[in-house]
Amino acid sequence: MELLSNLALGFATALSPMNLFLGFVGCLVGTLIGVLPGVGPIATIAMLMPLTLKVDPTGALIMLAGIYYGAQYGGSTTAILVNMPGESSSVVTCLDGYQMARRGQAGTALATAALASFFAGTCATVLVAAVSLPLSSLALKFGPAEYFSLMVLGLIGAVVLAHGSLLKAIAMILVGLLLGIVGTDVNSGVARFDFGIPELSDGIGVVVVAMGMFGFSEIILNLESTERRELITTRLKGLWFTREQFRRAAPAVLRGTALGSVLGVLPGGGAMLSSFASYSVEKKLSRDPSQFGKGAIEGVAGPEAANNAGAQTSFIPLLTLGIPENAVMAMMVGAMTIHNIQPGPQVMTSNPGLFWGLIASMWVGNLMLVVLNLPLIGIWIKLLTVPYRLLYPAILLFCAIGVYTVNNTSFDVMQTAFFGLLGVLVAKLECEPAPLLLGFVLGPMMEENLRRALLLSRGDPTVFATRPISAGLLAAAILLVLIIALPNMRKRREEAFQEA
Amino acid sequence: MADMQGRILRQDFLGGLAVIGVAALAYWLARKLPASAAGGMGPGALPKGLAVLLGGLGILLLLNAFKGERLARWSVRGPLFVLGALLLFGLTVRPLGLALAGPILIAAAGFASSEVRWRETLIYGLVMTAFCVGLFKFALGLPIPLAPWLLGY
Asked: Which residues in chain B show pLDDT less than 70?
């Protein structure tokens, strides 16, 4: 039982006092930003990057991962109590969670969300552990051609699963790929797109792009809308549910977990997509769909399980193949690079403590969250009453210090201002920044593998079609394009995004 | 005329123009990079290829602009003060140190909100800076200048 000994190693790592502490900090901060609307996990990971410079890479990743799934717990709290999604992945929890709270079932809704998340988190941890071993050994057989085809599939998947216009999503990816070219070309040593600025010769940092496009533009957009937050209740009672409620919620949790686990692995997938998909599945399967939007417990249980499962299984492609599949995972790549770890299948063998420790920490973190979350809700509610005009300058200051300390250069801080502006423009044109970030991170890897594959085949481009794994991946990519090009499917895709 | 004006203000029209602009800039910047090198692709192949693809996409966006939505109104105040505050921080953190760059950032950023209050923002800036100095400079020991003009570090 190799898996068991690996997990034992993982738990030994994750339960060391230092890592336990870092995991706790990650979960706590994650919940905090989950509660606060207007700060997403991407900006927070960027903000906390300097905190991780001083600890070993294992602890750093454990903490940063805690932020991501911690945010899934926190986001649901605000969704249920204030009808305001703290995170984009808890948008659908608002629909029925808030209605339950208005009927005086806030406690039940919160408990359902927490327990559904915990169950899904446990299943997803086991899944990540079980799948990563065979997938990594498969990935070690990959040559440059396979890697290139895999990334093509990943980018196309990100387009298909992005909201809104397909054309704009593709344009965003291309802009991201072009941004990834900035810097010195590794093969020829030629400077590309550097505008004669020496600071750009090493390329643009992931943290800089992410912080600007996700963190700062979000703050600017939040300043435009002056929403008032209304608390539905400050006192919670009756955290438990009736037998009837349990009977309705349990299958929804199971379905949400399965759906989230699968969608989390897909390129472009993750927590948000999973929760949206789960909500529409529950609504379709329900015997009484009219109950949805009026406080159906399935509408809380399913999506909450799905977003947590999706958040965790989205680590699978990163840990086994070294390929980030959504914007948060792109940030994790950035964090690993800062600690000089090249993400990929070799991490498991070269750094088993980190690999299994991170996986084990997910379960430990979930346990902490479910224990912590319910008693701390009172504090989180208090935090919501802090006015935004006090919140955002502090966030900006933390972010600015964070960006500065990653490379100790003030040029990076000024670059984030540029990407903040770009983020606002992109939002005004109703484009999605996530495909851009993905293209930006994957771009250099793609070019490298493309050129290496062509070098190995002596310039013969058919190598991508003649190697079986590569051909299969490309065929899947083409299939995706065809499916999305069918007018019928396109309509259904739009409906799917609209429904939730 | 009215229709033309309406069309220009549509998201996809402006988006298409912006995308074509980016593509043209990228192609122009890559013009001197060789597309092929000994034994495979040169450093210019991908940039040029991507620029051409992006330009084509921009044209498609322009053609579709009739159906698109109008551009939403937006204020200048938010971007101006938020991004301006960041630029100020970037300019001041080295010469003046965190002790001054912190309050400057918070004061400038505060004006991005219409609910700004003078005295509150100032005090808040000092308190937050003190907190950050304690956390980042002393607790974590990160090498960020504190007040070089006064302390020499």
From this structure: 1-9, 38-40, 67-72
Contact A119, A125 (CB under 8 A): no
Rounded (5°) CA angle A302-A488-A282: 10
- Give the one of B33, B74, B83 whose C-beta lies nearest to A428's C-beta: B74
Kindly state whether B65 is in contact with chain A, defined as any CB-CB distance less than 8 angstroms: no
Domain count, chain A: 1
What would the two tokens of residue B14 be? 């402006």
B132 touches chain A (CB under 8 A): yes
Contact B18 A178 (CB under 8 A): no
Cβ–Cβ gap B106/A181 under 8 Å: no
The secondary structure of A223-271 as a DSSP string is HH--PPP--S-S-----S--HHHHHHHHHHHHHHHHHHHHHHHSTT-SH
pLDDT at A493: 60
**Mean pLDDT along residues A229-233:** 55
Average pLDDT over residues A246-257: 90
Q: A45-60 as b/e, with b when 16 or more CB fall inside 10 Å?
A: bbbbbbbbbebebbbb
| Cα nearest neighbour of B117 on chain A | A389
Extents of the domains making up chain B: 2-63, 77-151
Q: What is the total residue count of chain B? A: 153
B125 touches chain A (CB under 8 A): yes
What pLDDT score does A500 carry?
Answer: 45
Tell which of B60, B62, B89 to mutate to test the A interface (max A CBs under 10 Å): B89
A450-490 per-position pLDDT tens digit: 988 988 888 788 888 899 989 999 999 898 888 777 766 66
Mean pLDDT of chain B: 85
Q: Containing domain of residue A377, as a range? A: 2-499
- Which helix H or strand E contains A362, and what residues bound it? helix A352-384
Work out how many CB contacts closer than 8 A connect A with B: 192
Interface residue B121 vs chain A (CB under 8 A):
yes
- Is the sign of the CA dihedral A266, A268, A273, A277 positive or negative? negative
The residue to which tokens 């400038």 are assigned:
B108
Contacts of A388 in chain B (CB under 8 A): 113
Residue among B120, B142, B144 with most chain A CBs within 10 A, to mutate: B142
Q: Is B23 helix (H, G, I), strand (E, B) or coil?
A: helix
Could you report the per-residue pLDDT of A28-39, keeping only the tens digit for each? Answer: 988 888 887 767
